[in-house]
Structures are given as C-alpha cells and as structure tokens.
C-alpha cells in the first residue's frame, strides 16, 4: 500500500496512517468511513471524518467515534500540530467520492459540476439521474431525454439532490 504524505505549511502528515487509525475506530463502532479530508485553514486545521451505516448515523455514533478517535490520534501523535477533529454524517445531499458511492446512488438524482463544459450538452453544471457506473465513468440521464457519459476525471463534484416533499 502506498504511503501518502500531505505537506501542511512546513509540516507533513501521513494520511495513510491516519486513515488506518480512523478505519480501526469506525469498524469497532459498526460504522463505515465514508470520506476523510484534511483541510488547512487560516487559524485552524480540520480533520473531517464522514461516517455512515445502513439506517443512517446518529449524533451518538458521531460522538462515540469522535471521542475514541481523538484519544487515539493524540496517543499515536500522527498530527504534530493543532487541528480540529470533526466527525459527522455525509448528509442527505452527500458528495460522491468513490466508484462505490456512485454505484450506491444508481437511480438517484444528482447535482453535477464539471471542471469544463460537457462537449455534448454544453453545460458545466446540471442535474441528472445516474443510470450506469463503471471504473472510469458514469452515465447520467438528463431531463429524461438523453443519457451521456461523464468521466470521473472531468468531475469537480457530484452530490445527491434531495427534494423535500
């Protein structure tokens, strides 16, 4: 497994080691690691952990994982500077990061923002329904009229579109 280092200012952190520790804790509590990100902020740095499970995440789940993870990360001293740990659900309008996230979202409406305008439809941002997924791209139905291919490499973000009824 490759080791990923993230340079923060003049400090570097081992994201692979952090992810390994996070996975240990979330699995212990019967939840899954949905996504993890380290964000360098002006006065604060943030380690954001998004967890999920069938039936949804409760505040209690986030609290338990956060407490356990906070202690473990301090003991292991994998982040040698101050940071804020945030543990939460990815939410109903969650962003999709992995092929598995796209697969779990088949048939769902999504908000898509591309890096550049799509060559077929001439739009950079649009809504559609995920119809198929493979390792390099996904197919999305636009306005019930046409299905287009969207390569993952062209995506700025894709998130679930939740409609209140």
- Number of helical runs? 3
Percentage of helical residues?
Answer: 10-25%
Rough shape?
elongated
Here the CATH topology of the largest domain equals: GMP Synthetase, Chain A, domain 3
Q: Uncertain segments of ≥5 residues (pLDDT<50)?
A: 1-8
Name of the CATH homologous superfamily of the largest domain: RimP-like superfamily, N-terminal
Whole-angstrom Rg: 18 Å
CATH-defined architecture of the largest domain: 2-Layer Sandwich
Q: Gap between N and C termini, in Å?
A: 45 Å
Can you tell me the CATH class of the largest domain?
Answer: Alpha Beta
Spatial sequence of strands, sheet with the most strands: 9-8-7-6-10
Question: Which sheet architecture does the biggest sheet show?
Answer: 5 strands, antiparallel
Which series of helices and strands comes N to C? EEHEEHEHEEEEE
Q: Give me the count of strands.
A: 10
Approximate strand percentage: 35-45%
The helix/strand class is alpha+beta
Layout of secondary structure:
Elements: E1 5-8, E2 11-14, H1 15-28, E3 32-40, E4 45-52, H2 59-76, E5 84-88, H3 99-104, E6 109-114, E7 125-133, E8 137-142, E9 146-151, E10 155-160
Parallel strand pairs: 4-5
Antiparallel strand pairs: 1-2, 3-4, 6-7, 6-10, 7-8, 8-9
Helix pairs in contact: 1-2
């Amino acid at each position: 497994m490759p080791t990923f280092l993230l340079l923060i200012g003049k400090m570097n952190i081992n994201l692979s080691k952090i992810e390994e520790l996070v996975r240990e804790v979330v699995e212990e509590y019967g939840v899954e690691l949905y996504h993890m990100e380290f964000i360098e902020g002006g006065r604060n740095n943030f380690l954001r952990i998004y967890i999920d499970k069938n039936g949804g995440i409760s505040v209690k789940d986030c609290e338990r994982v956060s407490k356990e993870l906070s202690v473990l990360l301090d003991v292991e001293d994998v982040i040698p500077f101050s940071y804020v740990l945030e543990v939460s659900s990815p939410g109903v309008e969650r962003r999709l990061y992995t092929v598995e996230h796209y697969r779990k979202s088949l048939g769902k409406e999504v908000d898509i923002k591309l890096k550049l305008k799509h060559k077929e439809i001439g739009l950079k941002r649009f809504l559609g329904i995920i119809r198929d997924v493979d390792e390099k791209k996904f197919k999305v139905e636009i306005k019930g009229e046409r299905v287009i291919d969207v390569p993952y490499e062209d995506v700025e973000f894709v998130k679930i579109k939740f409609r209140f009824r």
